[in-house]
Amino acid sequence: MDCITAGCDEILFYPLIGKQWIMIMDLLLGNQLGSTLVNDLQEREKELKQYMEQLENADAARTSLLSQLKDALQEQESKQELVRAQLLVSRISVPVLSPLM
């Protein structure tokens, strides 16, 4: 049984609206607007590939930034440990030196 005559077209093409739905119906019925649909789909594929490339570039930039932030954090943690060690030595040294003054 033909899907179109069985009423299945509403289910299959529900997400498509307006121009796309008309072009698909014309293509299925053998009208010459099929090439318009193909061109439209090719254009959308091209746009989608561009968006994917932009997302991949953004992901790479974020990965690089995250790596730099991790390195900077590690460097700051090392400096903080050094300051705490120096502070500890200072706290120990002050009571020892106080009686001598």
Automatic annotation (TrEMBL):
Q: Which residue stretches, if any, does this entry annotate as coiled coil? A: 38-86
Presence of keyword Coiled coil = yes
Name of the protein? Regulation of nuclear pre-mRNA domain-containing protein 2-like
Q: Per UniProt, which keywords does this protein have?
A: Coiled coil
